[in-house]
Amino acid sequence: MKFVRRRGIVGRRGKIIIALILLTLVIFILIPAGVKQLGKFLIVEDPLEKSAAIVVLGGDFPYRALEGASLYGSGWAPEVWVTTGIVRQEEKRALEIGIQYKREEAYNREALGLLGVPAGKIHPLRGEAENTAEEVRLIAGILKERKEDRVILVTSKPHSRRLRATWRALVGESPRAIVRYAREDPFEPENWWRYTDDTLEVIREVLGILNVWAGFPMKPKVR
Predict the structure, then answer these.
(1) CA-to-CA distance for 119 and 117, rounded, in angstroms?
(2) Going by C-beta distance under 8 Å and a sequence separation of 6 or more, which residues neighbour residue 46?
(3) Tens digits of per-residue pLDDT, 55-68?
(4) Longest pairwise C-alpha distance within the chain
(5) With contact defined as beta carbons under 8 Å apart, do 200 and 159 qualify?
(6) Could you read off the pLDDT of 135-158 as tens digits, one per residue?
(7) pTM of the prediction?
(8) What three-state secondary structure class fits 174?
(9) 108, 65 Cβ separation under 8 angstroms
(10) How confident is the model at residue 128 (pLDDT cuts 50, 70, 90)?
């Protein structure tokens, strides 16, 4: 009887060990696949349609400007809008001590001009926007004022899903946003965890999407 009981104990332990080994194998198989899928999940885009304007959102210079110029050259919209970020505290302090620099929207306008967009077709948007939600509200407000029904938004690859989600959460389907990502953006969706910059992008975008889904409980820090 003791021998039988020992065999039963050994059998249960053996099953547990086997289960743990199988679980470990599943984790090692699924986690890399899941990591790759996460990078791909962040990237979306919509079919192109003729629109009121192409909007080059702030960030990731010069890739968004390059894409905006390409879309303009292909005739998808008659003008290009450039968003304007807020002047941050560190920028104000730099100006106070005499450091001169161009803001990113100035570089975007210069790049668009060099890439063939006429100066009269490049329009910096009135009002400053600190984050994606503020950019969305600003652009949607201008479209409604002009009674326009759609616009093309140019962003980076990993930011595209959050941008689309933010527009739908704050604006809905009217006016409509056509989200496009910059083709030359160097983000690598299948290997993002290998690079510091790409990893930080993914973390920021995942948290940003969760914030959108939760109803924007996280707010930008007042500068």
Answers:
(1) 6
(2) 164, 177, 178, 179, 180
(3) 999 989 999 999 99
(4) 94
(5) no
(6) 999 999 999 999 999 999 999 999
(7) 0.82
(8) coil
(9) yes
(10) confident
Q: Which two tokens stand for residue 69?
A: 């110029």
Amino acid identity for residue 100 in this structure:
Q
DSSP-derived letter for residue 110 is H
For residues 68 and 154, the answer to whether their CB atoms sit within 8 Å is yes
- Name the token pair of 3: 């021998």
All domains of the chain in start order, with CATH: 54-213 (3.40.50.620)
pLDDT of residue 11: 65
- pLDDT of 31 > 70? The answer is no
Long-range pairs, 134-138, Cβ under 8 A, ≥24 = 135/57, 135/58, 135/83, 136/163, 136/166, 136/167, 136/170, 136/171, 136/177, 137/170, 138/83
